[in-house]
């Protein structure tokens, strides 16, 4: 039941991402707040239903983006799987895993986007895409990772109160 709070937050993050962050580009790249929220949710100990959130985020992005829906589905499921896998291994220091997943998830999303555009017949070269879109997007996602994790952690401590064991 507590996971239902994440869905209005996804919509709010989508509005912030499309209305504000897309108008502050770094070269051709932009931050993906939905990806960062999914990473933070997957890294949390209560994030067992993050898969449903990935499907919802995919639906939202497919609605507002010209990119094919499977790009978002693939990248969001990738970060969810990596987050759930690494949350069990890096339980004492989740920040290392958080930055690791954000870095590789952003690169994976950029590669999927380039592949989808290449298959669709776009004339964008690999070097231009890497230099002007993928690397700046990875940088912006890494920049917003820590604030997004802090916001999610505060929300999670409010929604999922810590259960003390006797």
TrEMBL record:
Transmembrane intervals: 20-43, 50-71, 95-121, 133-152
Keyword set includes Transmembrane: yes
Keywords: Membrane, Transmembrane, Transmembrane helix
Protein name in UniProt: Rod shape-determining protein MreD
Gene source species: bioreactor metagenome
């Amino acid at each position: 039941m507590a996971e239902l709070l994440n869905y209005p937050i996804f919509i709010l993050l989508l509005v912030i991402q499309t209305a504000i962050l897309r108008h502050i580009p770094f070269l051709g790249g932009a931050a993906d707040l939905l990806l960062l929220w999914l990473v933070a949710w997957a890294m949390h100990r209560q994030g067992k239903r993050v898969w449903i959130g990935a499907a919802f985020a995919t639906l939202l992005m497919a609605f507002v983006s010209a990119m094919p829906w499977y790009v978002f589905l693939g990248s969001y499921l990738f970060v969810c799987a990596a987050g759930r896998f690494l949350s069990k291994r890096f339980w004492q220091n989740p920040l290392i895993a958080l930055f690791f997943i954000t870095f590789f998830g952003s690169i994976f999303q950029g590669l999927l986007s380039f592949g989808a555009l290449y298959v669709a017949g776009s004339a964008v070269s690999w070097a231009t895409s890497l230099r002007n879109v993928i690397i700046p997007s990875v940088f912006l996602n890494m920049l917003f990772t820590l604030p997004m994790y802090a916001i999610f952690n505060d929300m999670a401590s409010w929604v999922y109160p810590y259960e003390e064991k006797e």
